[in-house]
Amino acid sequence: MSRLRVEKTPLRVRLYLADGTRAEGELFVAPMSPAGAGPQPVWQLLEEAGPVVPFRDAQGRFCLVGTRQVAAVETLEAASDPLPPPPWVRAVPVEVRLAGGHELVGDLLLEVEGRPVDALRTPGEWVFVRRLSGGAWVRKALLVVLRLER
């Protein structure tokens, strides 16, 4: 075991689990991502965490959550003035239904000519859905239905 330890920063989140549980609390991210561009993204934390990730619930209790059972993680610390997407990105309104019966509504951010299926076929376990709260990282393997809103 290494004696090196990286202090983590709490990030307010809402977890959506595959069994239908929804919990608000904090995950702990590194203050600097391995790429060196800001704090560690929540999707990266979950991919690197191993079988469990530490979580502090809204009552202050610590627990370990099975990472493979996390269907989505919604960040609850929205930017006060979110930036509009760049001109090469378009927002496609979607409704997402996840394992456990959870439903999320938001925007899938795509390249101007991109299709929703392209976002789901890209490498990686997660797809981002922009929401008023900031956004939610959705595990592709636990996505049941993605419906385009009109």
- In terms of DSSP E residues, the strand content is over 45%
What series of H and E elements makes up the topology? EEHEEEEEHEEE
Main pleated-sheet profile: 10 strands, antiparallel
Output the CATH class name of the largest domain: Mainly Beta
- How many domains? The number is 2
Helix content: under 10%
Strand order of the largest sheet: 4-3-2-1-5-9-8-7-6-10
Q: In angstroms, what separates the terminal alpha carbons?
A: 53 Å
Query: What's the β-strand tally?
Result: 10
Shape: globular
From the coordinates shown, what is the CATH architecture of the largest domain? Answer: Roll
Report the radius of gyration as a whole number of Å.
Answer: 16 Å
Total of helices: 2
What name does the CATH topology of the largest domain carry? SH3 type barrels
Query: Low-confidence parts lasting 5 or more residues at pLDDT below 50?
Result: none
By secondary-structure content and strand pairing, the structural class works out as mainly beta
Report the mean per-residue pLDDT as an integer: 88
Structure report:
This protein has 150 residues and is mainly beta. The protein has two domains: 67 residues, SH3 type barrels, CATH 2.30.30; 60 residues, SH3 type barrels. It contains two helices and ten strands. It has a ten-stranded antiparallel β-sheet with strand order 4-3-2-1-5-9-8-7-6-10. A hairpin with a 4-residue loop joins strand 6 and strand 7. The chain is globular. The model has no long low-confidence stretch (mean pLDDT 88).
Characteristic key phrases:
150 residues; mainly beta; SH3 type barrels; 2 helices
